[in-house]
Design goal:
- The complex is a heterodimer of chains A (116) and B (109).
- Chain A is mostly beta strands and 116 residues long.
- Chain A has strands spanning 4-7, 10-13, 19-25, 31-37, 43-51, 54-57, 64-66, 76-78, 87-94, 105-107, 111-115.
- Chain A is globular, with a radius of gyration of 14 Å.
- Chain B is mainly beta.
- Helices cover 0% and strands 46% of the residues of chain B.
- Chain B has no helices and nine strands.
- The radius of gyration of chain B is 13 Å and the shape is globular.
- Classes of the chains: A mainly beta (116), B mainly beta (109).
- The A-B interface holds A 31, 33, 35, 41-45, 48, 50, 58-59, 88, 90, 92, 94, 96-110, 112 and B 28, 30-32, 34, 36, 41-46, 49, 85, 87, 89-102.
Chain lengths: 116, 109
């Protein structure tokens, strides 16, 4: 089945540790995105990538890093520099439609990260 | 980047039509308007997208006036399962997806 897969679903991290969240898609989408969602809040954009080997910072990139070595994969690393990393993280992908703006995006089921 | 403004919350009884309005005063010529639905602990799900006038699909209608500075998502005959957060997005030409806080719709029996 085509789709976008995030893993793991739940993740626990000790303070001071880096942790990497996985996001894989087999939809052949060019664009991929990472969002953070805190309880009762909307989604905030962390990073996005429109093509392989290129990515841009979103609203809240500090303390996070990404890579886009393959079209299918867009892993997010939460570094120790992120002061409050406990949140729900969502990955999405979409086609790039020049001149149309935001095309339909498909989201993964999310990873809930908790710092212990 | 076009910003959007939506009501924070709305309540509706089952079976009623619900209209959620989104303001986007600085929408750009090439921007499309897209609506998503999100249930707790899940990723958002695409509902509908439009550029102007009216768009209808099997779940909703989207009304966009001629000046495109606002849009209205219309959900016909809502049920309890429509209780969710609804987001209005206005896309810029580089296809970034910026979500606001959305509108929390509660459907009452």
């Amino acid at each position: 089945d085509g789709g976008i897969t995030q893993s793991p679903k739940y993740l626990f991290r000790k303070e001071g540790q880096n942790v990497t969240l996985s996001c894989e898609q087999n939809l052949n989408h060019d664009a991929m995105y990472w969002y953070r969602q805190d309880p009762g809040q909307g989604l905030r954009l962390i990073y996005y990538s429109q093509i392989v080997n290129d990515f841009q910072k979103g609203d809240i990139a500090e303390g996070y890093s990404v890579s886009r070595e393959k079209k299918e994969s867009f892993p997010l690393t939460v570094t120790s520099a992120q002061k409050n990393p406990t949140a729900f993280y969502l990955c999405a992908s979409s086609i790039v439609v020049t001149g149309q703006g935001a095309a339909e995006a498909f989201f993964g089921q999310g990873t809930r990260l908790t710092v212990v | 980047l076009a910003k959007t403004t939506q009501p924070i919350s709305m309540d509706s009884y089952e079976g009623q039509e619900v209209n959620i309005t989104c303001s986007h005063n600085n929408i750009a010529t090439n921007d499309y308007i897209t609506w998503y639905q999100q249930f707790p602990s899940q990723g958002p799900r695409f509902i509908i997208q439009g550029y102007k006038t009216k768009v209808t699909n099997e779940v909703a209608s989207l009304f966009i006036p001629a000046d495109r500075k606002s849009s209205t998502l219309s959900l016909p005959r809502v049920s309890l399962s429509d209780t969710a957060v609804y987001y209005c997005l206005v896309g810029d030409i580089s296809n970034n997806l910026f979500f606001g806080t959305g509108t929390r719709l509660t459907v009452i029996p």
